[in-house]
């Protein structure tokens, strides 16, 4: 799970914007203006049906992380958190 979904900066963050881009999901912010310090991105390569390959991007560590539990869910009430 990407730690960004519980980070106070998720709706301003350029790194999270890039993660959304790789996941092909809609953006929380159209114009992110914050660059987190030293984000560590975990990339997982998955075998998919029909010999396709999927790639998952998750931020697993970041020096700018500031806990705000459920921030993403409050911005998108009722929607499933991207995995
Ligand atoms: S944890 Fe880091 S990369 Fe993720 S939203 Fe927060 S500042 Fe951005």
**Main sheet summary:** 2 strands, antiparallel
Count of folded domains: 1
The H/E string reads HEEH
Arithmetic mean of pLDDT: 93
Number of helices: 2
Distance from first to last alpha carbon? 6 Å
Q: Give the neighbour order of strands across the main sheet.
A: 1-2
Strand content: 15-25%
Content-based structural category: alpha+beta
Task: Please tell me about this protein's structure.
With 83 residues, the chain is an alpha+beta fold. It has helices spanning 14-23, 71-75; strands at residues 40-47, 53-61. It has one domain (3-75). The chain is built from 2 helices and 2 strands, in the order H-E-E-H. A two-stranded antiparallel sheet has the order 1-2. The protein starts with 13 loop residues before the first helix and ends in an 8-residue tail after the last helix.
